[in-house]
Specification:
alpha/beta; Rossmann fold; 2 domains; 8-stranded mixed sheet; 5-stranded antiparallel sheet; globular; binds S-adenosyl-L-homocysteine
């Protein structure tokens, strides 16, 4: 018997460790793989903050889970045009994806986690579709109270069951009496990483942009554990290690985890609203003028990244900003958690 979080961690370590899952031939596609505009605007967002912070020396570009390195390549090109030329630090555990990244970013330094990042100089951080891959625990309201969801093997099948000691004390007061069968998710790994990142940015200066699918007002009731294979949804308990397991990101909880370690938190806002504020429409038009034969593809990508029925609303953007650093672009309508 294994808690869901252990199952998810082991399955994803194998999954990401053994393949490049991105793109048409893989299992899913992400914003930077849809269009160069996404990475470019991430880079410009960081460059603008760094510029208005007074162009501090020794800046580091840091990316969590950089996939194929596409976002980093596009962001670095845009940053260099804006006069920012940071060194590059990639936090990646997958040997297969490290290799793909090294082909495109030969001068980068790789890290297993953020503890080995340089300890001086501002950190300019991007995490796109990283937190959703981190393991969640699921706690379920059974007839006798709240218990951990675990996986077990019966007759050769992997099945979810409830087991372990009662966990009623972990459930927020207002959710205690949710209907039997309700599930609450919590991601201790996400909280630990967001907290450590907040502490680093507060101490060294810098900013982080976290983009992912998720919800604003957690912890909340909901089973968001999902498996994706061949661009479709699958049973999360089938084929462990051969399909992508993810959960929706609880933005409020990771925001608080970072905030208590000293950073200002802005958002989350919709990815579409953030990209609109960053000028994606102008960028799309300029690209379409420069390459008229690609106009339909570019406008299609713009639509996919920003429209409410596509990635514009389900995907959220959240900013973590060092205390003395300026207000970030694109978060005008979201109150900052700053005190
Ligand atoms: N950001 C990329 C890829 C998203 S897929 C994009 O937008 O295209 C998730 C990425 O996170 C992969 O690179 C995967 O190998 C990495 N990853 C998953 N779990 C990780 C962990 N615990 N530590 C570091 N990287 C991890």
């Amino acid at each position: 018997m294994l808690p869901i979080a252990y199952f998810m961690a082991a399955a994803n370590a194998h999954y990401y460790g053994t393949r490049d899952p991105l793109g048409a031939a893989g299992d899913f596609i992400t914003a930077p793989e849809i269009s160069q505009m996404f990475g470019e605007l991430c880079g410009l967002w960081l460059a603008d903050l760094w510029d208005r912070a007074g162009r501090p020396a020794n800046p580091h570009y840091v990316e969590f889970g950089p996939g194929r390195g596409t976002l980093a390549v596009d962001a670095l090109r845009a940053m260099r045009r804006a006069g920012l030329d940071p060194d590059v630090h990639l936090i990646e555990t997958s040997p297969a994806l490290r290799k793909a990244q090294a082909d495109r970013l030969p001068d980068a330094t790789w890290h297993d986690d953020l503890s080995s990042l340089p300890s001086e100089g501002p950190l300019l951080v991007i995490a796109n579709e990283f937190f959703d891959a981190l393991p969640v625990r699921q706690i379920v309201h059974g007839p006798q109270g709240w218990f951990e969801r675990m996986v077990t093997v019966q007759h050769g099948l992997i099945l979810p069951v409830l087991d372990g000691p009662p966990l009623n004390g972990l459930i927020p007061e207002h959710l205690h009496d949710s209907p039997v069968g309700s599930i609450i998710e919590t991601s201790p790994a996400s909280v630990a990483i967001a907290g450590a990142l907040g502490e680093r940015i507060a101490a060294q200066g810098g900013a982080a942009l976290v983009v992912d699918y998720g919800y604003d007002h957690g912890p909340a009731i909901g089973d968001t554990l999902q498996a994706v294979r061949g661009h479709g949804y699958a049973n999360p308990f089938d084929l462990p290690g051969d399909q992508d397991l993810t959960a929706h990101v609880d933005f409020a909880t990771i925001g608080v985890a970072a905030h208590v370690r000293g950073v200002h938190v802005h958002g989350p806002v919709g990815q579409g609203a953030w990209l609109d504020a960053m000028g994606i429409a102008l960028r799309a038009e300029a690209l379409a003028r420069a390459t008229p034969d690609r106009r339909d593809e570019i406008m299609g990508a713009h639509h996919r990244l920003t429209h409410a029925d596509e990635m514009g609303v389900l995907f959220r953007a959240m900013a973590l900003i060092a205390p003395e650093w300026p207000q970030p672009v694109g978060f005008a309508n979201s109150a900052a958690t700053s005190s």
